[in-house]
């Protein structure tokens, strides 16, 4: 974990009461998996979702737990709640969890740009957790932003970054369980000579590429693009000019990003490669001679942010290209949230 100067948020205990809100969803399920993998100290796990799945059973550490209905759920006594049940649900319920004394780590976009709420990537800005001391809500950034700032921050610490131009290749799992199902069903339908039904995405995603994630804004960007622009500046506390084109591709897990960076001064590809190789949370795979570079299929199911194709931009001074890949459900969502929870219990 990056060095921080935080004092303890939660008292030292053998185990904490942890609620996972959205426990039946794509991110919620991975949160439960990662809590087990990392042996997060838990005295009681409480899976929470909507009335649709209340009463169903979830396995955790070889025991079964009944899913509770968020609407009737009393958060009294919960130490940490990991929310991944959509923005509207977070807006409505996170404040009452926080008022009951629980720390809420929210994966939605509901609180991210609220100036009183910290937007945390533990490798980048752990000290911003201080903002949660009283309001007890912490925002987990957008998946595409997280993997990009993990790669940008160590470079920026050596030579300040002036501008970033990013194009993303985003997996369908970022849209949740129904989105994963839509790619699978459309692919099967088309291969069987049937028509593909479009429900979740704005167009057919099977055998296609869609330059449209979230809604369009008046400035012509999509909201997903605007999130990358605004969140990068907030997390890095730097006046970096960011522009983005965010694109959905027919990949189940793992977001890839082509990132073009312009620095204030010279940053060679070799220097960047060495800085990134030493940086926390990053693995560099960059060997054109043996055709080695990061792939979404390799990153899926793993924790690091993978960086490759590091090269100087021949068209522009002080500029580099990077190819940045990560599991959008793990580092892009569930893992980052649990790393924040680990900061909350650090003594
Ligand atoms: P449920 O299974 O009861 O619908 P995904 O991102 O994969 O689509 O998952 C969304 C998660 O958020 C699911 O666990 C879903 O629960 C939960 N969820 C969605 N809406 C609500 C709500 N209004 N209250 C509680 N949980 C919700």
Task: Explain what the structure shows.
There is one protein chain. With 347 residues, the chain is an alpha/beta fold. Helices cover 30% and strands 23% of the residues. It contains nine helices and 15 strands. The chain has a seven-stranded parallel beta sheet, sandwiched between helices. Strand 14 and strand 15 form a beta hairpin. The longest helix has 16 residues, at 143-158. The two termini are 13 Å apart. The model has no long low-confidence stretch (mean pLDDT 97). Bound molecules: adenosine-2'-5'-diphosphate. Adenosine-2'-5'-diphosphate is lined by residues 22-28, 49-50, 52-53, 70, 85-86, 89, 176-178. The site of adenosine-2'-5'-diphosphate (A2P) has 18 residues, from helix 1 and helix 5.
Topology:
Blueprint: E1 16-21, H1 26-37, E2 42-49, E3 57-60, E4 63-66, E5 68-69, E6 80-83, H2 87-99, E7 103-106, E8 118-119, H3 132-135, E9 137-139, H4 143-158, E10 161-169, H5 177-191, H6 223-236, E11 241-245, E12 255-263, H7 269-278, E13 282-284, H8 296-299, E14 305-312, E15 319-326, H9 330-345
Parallel strand pairs: 1-2, 1-6, 2-5, 6-7, 7-9, 8-9, 10-11, 13-14
Antiparallel strand pairs: 3-4, 10-12, 12-15, 14-15
Helix pairs in contact: 1-9, 4-6, 4-9
């Amino acid at each position: 974990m990056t060095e921080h100067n935080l004092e303890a948020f939660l008292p030292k205990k053998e185990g904490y009461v942890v609620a996972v809100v959205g426990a039946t969803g794509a991110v919620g399920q991975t949160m439960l998996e990662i809590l087990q993998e990392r042996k997060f100290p838990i005295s009681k796990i409480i899976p929470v979702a909507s009335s649709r799945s209340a009463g169903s059973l979830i396995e955790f550490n070889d025991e079964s737990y009944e899913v509770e209905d968020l609407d009737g759920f009393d958060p009294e006594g919960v130490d940490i709640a990991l929310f991944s049940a959509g923005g509207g649900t977070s807006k409505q319920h996170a404040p009452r969890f926080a008022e009951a004394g629980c720390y809420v780590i929210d994966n939605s976009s509901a609180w991210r740009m609220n100036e009183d709420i910290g937007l945390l990537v533990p490798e980048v800005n752990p000290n911003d957790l201080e903002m949660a001391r009283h309001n007890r809500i912490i925002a987990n950034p957008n998946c595409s932003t997280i993997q990009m700032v993990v790669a940008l921050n160590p470079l920026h610490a050596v030579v300040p970054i002036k501008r970033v131009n990013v194009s993303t290749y985003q997996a369908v799992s970022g849209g949740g369980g129904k989105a994963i199902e839509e790619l699978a069903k459309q692919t099967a339908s088309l291969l069987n000579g049937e028509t593909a039904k479009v429900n979740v995405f704005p167009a057919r995603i099977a055998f296609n590429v869609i330059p449209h994630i979230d809604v369009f804004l008046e400035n012509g960007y999509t909201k997903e693009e605007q999130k990358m622009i605004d969140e990068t500046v907030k997390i890095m506390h730097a006046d970096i000019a960011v522009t983005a084109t965010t694109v959905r591709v027919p990949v189940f897990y793992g977001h890839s990003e082509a990132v073009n960076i312009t620095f204030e001064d010279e940053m060679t590809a070799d220097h960047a490669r060495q800085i990134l190789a030493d940086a926390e949370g990053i693995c560099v795979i960059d060997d054109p001679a043996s055709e080695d570079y990061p792939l979404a299929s390799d990153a899926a199911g793993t924790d690091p942010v993978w960086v490759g194709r590091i090269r100087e931009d021949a068209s522009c001074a002080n500029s580099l290209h990077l190819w940045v890949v990560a599991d959008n459900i793990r580092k892009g969502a569930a893992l980052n949230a649990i790393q924040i929870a680990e900061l909350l219990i650090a003594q």
